[in-house]
Design a protein that fits this description.
Shape: globular
Strand content: 25-35%
Order of helices and strands: HEEEHHEHHEEHEEEEEEHE
Number of strands: 13
Radius of gyration: 19 Å
Structural class: alpha+beta
Helix content: 10-25%
Distance between the termini: 44 Å
């Protein structure tokens, strides 16, 4: 069974990082109108694998090991809380502003991303796509039609609007409410009933079951966070990034084995540079602005010769790079 192209980019560096997930879905399915998505190209998609639940768990475990080996990082343990000081501040800003194409130079530097206190609360977010690039050409991006559809999302007239929530933990640290934020963005981009289940919402692992409007199928989306970094630049500036491996598959029907189709696997880095932009006379932050870059890489899977061939063709460079401007109010 052929499916519409469905490369979901799911990143967890912040609630804003999920905007890339939403915009990528809209690139393939078209804008939501009355919560019904319009397919752009019925023949654009690749086949996906149908994976039983136990096989899915084993698949995730194997991909974690493969990813750690590729990056040469220790994703099984976190660095001390002051690990960020071991590197000069500005590394993330440099990767974004210079649009560096190299693999990430950091590992899993914390158990989660911990935001400044002024993030706490619920925000109305506006995300605008600034640009879409195909460093390795349109073919590796997904084809000319997919690249053109993604570029059509550029501009304020195509802004995605949703809510984002940040909560405080017992020790007073502020973290993103991942489950809430993902659900908000998926509903805004794919329809009110697109989120069927979110069984796992952890800092290093997120799993959900989605049914995009008029896609005529469901999708398992699993992400594994294997690299993370944050930099507290000043009282008003905060930079962060996460690198995840994303696995998209189709759940098997009860009692049936389903066709043998491969999952869609990608590695995604999201860098976000935040600034407390508007502060009132009492010192309360009323607006946060964010510049963001999301870069998608081919995941080289040794058991999959095609992925290895495509990875070698890309020479380790990202195949999809997008820039966003976000406003929190």
């Amino acid at each position: 069974m052929k499916l519409f192209a469905f490369t979901i980019l799911f990143c967890f560096s912040s609630s804003t990082a999920f905007v890339h997930f939403a915009n990528n879905v809209r690139s393939y399915y078209g804008p939501i109108q009355n919560h019904r998505a319009v397919p752009l190209d019925n023949n654009a998609g690749d086949d996906l694998v149908t994976i039983p639940s136990d096989g899915r768990r084993n698949l995730l475990k194997s991909f974690v090991g493969t990813f750690i080996f590729e990056l040469g990082i220790d994703a099984c343990s976190s660095l001390p809380t002051n690990a960020v000081d071991a590197f000069e501040k500005g590394l993330l800003e440099s990767r974004l502003t210079e649009n560096l194409m190299s693999k990430v130079p950091y590992g899993l530097e914390g158990t989660d991303l911990f935001y400044p206190a002024y993030f706490k609360g619920v925000w109305d977010v506006k995300s605008v796509t600034k640009s879409v690039e195909a460093p390795c050409g349109p073919s590796l991006f997904g084809g000319n039609s997919t690249f053109s559809a993604a570029q059509a999302e550029v501009g304020p007239e195509n802004a995605l609007r949703y809510r984002a929530r940040f909560t405080s933990q017992n020790e007073g640290t502020v973290i993103a409410d991942r489950e809430f934020n993902v659900a908000e963005i998926v509903r805004a981009s794919m329809g009110n009933n697109a989120v069927l289940n979110i069984p796992v919402a952890e800092p290093n692992k997120f799993c959900c079951l989605l049914a995009p409007s008029s896609a005529n199928t469901m999708f398992n989306v699993d992400t594994l966070t294997v690299a993370r970094r944050q930099e507290n630049i000043s009282d008003r500036q905060f930079d962060c990034s996460e690198l995840v491996r994303q696995i998209v598959s189709i759940p098997s029907e009860r009692g049936g084995s389903g066709p043998n189709r491969k999952p869609r696997i990608k590695d995604i880095e999201a860098i976000s540079l935040y600034e407390a932009a508007v502060i009132d006379s009492s010192g309360r932050v009323n607006e946060i602005r964010c510049s963001q870059r999301v870069a998608t890489f081919i995941a080289p899977i040794p058991e999959d010769p095609l992925s290895m061939q495509l990875w070698q063709y890309s020479r380790g460079r990202p195949i999809d790079v997008r820039f966003y401007d976000l406003t929190y109010r």
